[in-house]
Please model this.
Amino acid sequence: MCVFCKIAAGEIPCTKVYEDEHVLAFLDINPVTQGHTLIIPKKHADDFTQCPSYLVARMHGIARKLAKHYDGILKPNGYHFLSNAKTAAGQSVFHVHFHLIPRYDATDGLDFAFRGTERHKLDPATQKKLHL
Model:
């Protein structure tokens, strides 16, 4: 059983901030900012590409609810809502989870930047193939 399954089952303690029959949200034990929260489905799926869409949507809705709640308590200036899917993206726990990370300023503990370049652009034929 994975560590997040054990947390969802109550075998490992956590600081819960939200729970219902399908989803659990708890404070990260190694937060990058104050209020860094993990949102997980109680049912195991390796990453969001393997998780049922209704659960991904539910976790997103809970993140919105928590962000609005945190606004009045933590007073961040913004949020990141993200999930690392698979090793190449930095996933280290292979149970789908979303990070809700309150942002305060450029020195708050998270260095996150997009650094796109021309070499990352797709040719028109490949762009066309991506359309569903």
Residues 20 and 42 are 9 Å apart (CA to CA).
